[in-house]
Amino acid sequence: MPERHIDAIMKFLAGREYQPLKERQLARQMGIADAEYGSFRQAVKRLRDAGRIVIGAKNAMTLPPMGSSVVGTYRSNPKGFGFVVPDEPNSHGDLYIPAGAAGSAISGDTVVARASAAGKRGGQMVYRGEIVKILRRAESRFVGSLERSDAGWFVLPDGREMSTPIIVRDVGKAGPKAGDKVVVEIVEYPSPGELPVGVIVERLGEAGSTAIETLAVIRAHGLPDEFSPAALKDARAAIARFESDGSTGLTASGDFEGRDDLTGQTIVTIDPSDARDYDDAISLRSGKNGEVELGVHIADVSHFVTEGSPLDAGARERATSVYFPRKVIPMLPEVLSNGVCSLQEGVRRLCKSAFVTYDAEARPVRTRLAETVIQSAKRLTYVQAQRIADGSEEGCSPAVVRLVRDMVALARRIEARRRKAGMLHLALPQVELVFDESDRVVDAVAEDDSYTHTVIEMFMVEANEAVARVLDARKRAFIRRIHPAPDRAGGARASTFIHALGYKIPADLNRFDVQALLESVKGKPEEYAVNLAILRSFQEAEYSPRQVGHYALASDCYCHFTSPIRRYADLTVHRLVAELCRKTLASRPPEDLEALTALASDCSAASRRAEAAEREVREVLVLQMLEKRVGEDFEGVITGVANFGLFVQSPRYLVEGLVSMESLGDDWWEVDAKRGQIRGEHTGKRYRIGDRMKVRIGHVDLARRRLSLAPVRDLEDTAALPSRKPRKSRPKKKVAADRAAGKHKHKGKKRR
Fold first, then answer.
1. How far apart are CA 184 and CA 162, in angstroms?
2. Considering the chain, what is the average pLDDT of its residues?
3. 8 A C-beta contact, residue 293 and residue 368
4. With 401 labelled, which of 342, 515, 641, 646 sits at a CA distance of 20 to 30 A?
């Protein structure tokens, strides 16, 4: 099918390192197998016929040149200019929009821009544009802080997307006050040189508190945080049908009939100490010839959420739960997620269970899926389980102690098998925020890294893979969790950067070469940089019915089954498992592939939206703390280079700030983006991704989510050098030659 090659071809040609290639050369560079070359050629033909690629000199393929009219998304800059990101990639890239040429467009709008050549720079044609038409407004509502100036009231929007203040003409005497977080809706879009006008549609509260800042991000990302009355009624009705005596979970309605009764087995849950819902539990049983059966028991959410019901519609809209430091937006009402769908200790609960039998080498030999009834013998935290693994008994029964220690032993064998198969694990820091009594962030600590986290992770991965194999063998279309292998362009970027660090790795990023590389840098100063480079070379994991596999897990067939309480994709898989267990799957109509693809795409988008919101709340809360620590120093890690400076991340707080090029000192700085470094021409000083750098907090712009930093050493050098002779300027011919060669060099600010 040529469709699967089209996006990959366009992405490859749009890469900054791409040089024109012939068709066969391109296929080789992209790693296209001989068996797929026919469909690859069809994809090339479709792209050529549609004008999305052009065949140039020597039959080499390139993206088309910048056209006279460009359709794309406008992104504004606080300094007044902006760029149009084309919907269809071209050989030039984004179109520069000078200040005053955006018309009434605001950041995020889909626009038509007229492009014109503006001469050459570095041997390349330079274009600038003017927005002539707005096709679609991206947003009409924004979240921000209400402020007042001599000219009147205005809202300063939060975030980096919208940098223009929005005028508010009538606040009202009983309305919000200056400093409040509000939601504002634009009612008059700006003419050139003017500001938009809006009305306040919701007052969130006084800015600054964790609760209000979290709510502001929720509104900004459009996250639904209230269930409809119909969904809540549906949830209560489902619980009412599950009539229980409140202590044993016994039911008179036949909910347990036809299920495997596992209440006599020793089963445990292991979760974080602050967890409120327990949706997975584990059991083990020994067999003959060293075999062991792993039981992964997942709360049977599909039993309570009927497909097509109002409750299901609400879950489908949300598609995922969202986890903030002090708040959770659940996919399902908490009367379900924290009640009948929570595998509480000593209470009988309904589950979907995956049983995987392993041989002595921890290789799966059999899989069985079943609808079950379980009763958790013990609710453990990760820390408690780790202490049991280390020799303590934690007041638990001998059966629970034995189970936990056997779980650890099996998980180690599974992990070893998966690593041998190529599974990748990146060593990147994770932290937990520390709050004071007023609910403000005051610190961050490294997350608990007990091996029991890996135990549960391995068992969940095994269950997800086992269920995917079963459904795949039944030739059913279902929502998979796919993670494509890195494309050639991403691999080449990582390879070039890693080579600059003194290591070698091929551009095709073979899993075993990556494993060897990660092992070789373990514990070394460059470990973080290498792990970060590998992560950035990865494509994004997503939901799709396509049979792609999961690169990082070294799995040919994978789905999400283990969290239907918080992921809608898992719930769709549970419904197929239910029909399989009831032997009705064969009579179920085939899935509508187009509808399934659309649903998978919605689940992927919801997951990305949730991650972005979670990341932004953490960033805001940390920046609030750092706002009170301006002038303090910390040792950071360089995580990115750009022609305007260095990005430096605090490993302690996982927040990133900018060290501007001007603050690096008096030099002519050459930017080498491919190798992830900048170098001072006169001093020879080099900064590269992964280097440690002591920096000072200079300024925090909370509204724009920006942290400005300065290198401490350069600041100290400035203090030690009150005066010095000025350096001679570079010869003009040398400067001109460098610019003609297209080198990115930037003059640092002179020390006074």
1. 12
2. 88
3. no
4. 342
